[in-house]
Structure formats: C-alpha cells, structure tokens
Amino acid sequence: MDLKELYQDLILDHGKKPRNFGKCNSANHDAKGHNPLCGDNIHVYLNLDNNKKVKDISFEGSGCAISVASSSIMTEIVKGKSEKESRELLNSFFKMIKEGDEIKKVGLTEDEHIKFSSLAGVGRFPMRVKCATLSWHTLRAALDNEKKPINSEIID
C-alpha cells in the first residue's frame, strides 16, 4: 500500500466512523460552523482546563465525508494539546491546505503526523477546501469563545 492509498483509507475510515463524535462532558467552550455550498454543519465542543490544555474535544453535525473526516482527525490530534499548540496546529493546517506546505512533525506523534498529512491532498480540490477547513475554523472560534457561527462563505 502506498502513502496515497493509506491517506485515502484514513479519510474514508474517519468519514464513516468519526472519532469523538457527540457532545463531550463538561465542555466550557464551543462554536458552530456552516458550509452552505456543501451543507456541512459542525458544532465543536472543547474543555480547556485551568492550564489552557485541551482536556477534551468533540464534535456534532453532519456533512460530506471530507468534512466529517477532517473534524474527526482534528479532534484526535488536538486532544491533550495546549491552547498554544492547538493554535499552531491550526495555522499549520491552513498553510498545508492552502499553500501545499509540508507539515513538520514538531509536537506530533508519528501517528498524528500521518493523520494530519492525510488531509493535505484536499488542497488540490478547491471545491473541497472549505469542507476540510470548516471544523478547523470552528475550533479557532471555540478557542476564542466566539459565539457568532462560522460561515465558510465569508472565511478565506
């Protein structure tokens, strides 16, 4: 199995069996996002502890396979990270998707790096970029405790 097949299998698996789906207990931050082009709706819940570490994160919603897979992968990677690390991952993710930059392994396990990198190919499909980035923009809004829903049509 080559790397491309592995990435496709990862995305399909997360799209069909999303991890961290449902509202997490004791969420103290949350945000909603919507992609009107594709019909994706996402609600990200997270629990930041007193040290600003993501103690728990989950999501609810519906959408295309890319949107669900990206949300699932995001929750697995961000869980346990500090707020600062989470924001760095957000920036790296957007750069990877929009500019095709290779993600560095800094702060990621090998497994997390593979999952993160599996979403890189989405950047080649402009109609799918907003599907893949919606949950990440929604995570940023949750970290900022922003209550206005995210609309993928007004974010770049």
How far apart, in Å, are the first and last alpha carbons?
35 Å
CATH A-level architecture: Alpha-Beta Complex
Q: What spatial order of strands do you see in the largest sheet?
A: 3-2-1-4
* Number of helical segments with 4 or more residues: 5
- Rg calculated over all Cα atoms: 14 Å
The helix/strand order is HEEEHHHHE
Q: Given this structure, which CATH class is correct?
A: Alpha Beta
**What overall geometry do the principal axes of the alpha carbons give?**
globular
Helix content: 40-55%
Number of folding domains? 1
The main β sheet shows up as:
4 strands, mixed
Mean pLDDT level:
91
The helix/strand class is: alpha+beta
Strand content: 15-25%
CATH topology term: Sufe protein. Chain: A
- Tell me how many strands there are: 4
Q: Assembly type of the shown chains?
A: single chain
Task: Describe the structure concisely.
With 156 residues, this protein is of the alpha+beta class. It has one domain (3-144): Sufe protein. Chain: A, CATH 3.90.1010. It has helices at 3-16, 65-78, 83-99, 110-117, 126-143, and strands at 29-35, 40-48, 54-62, 150-151.
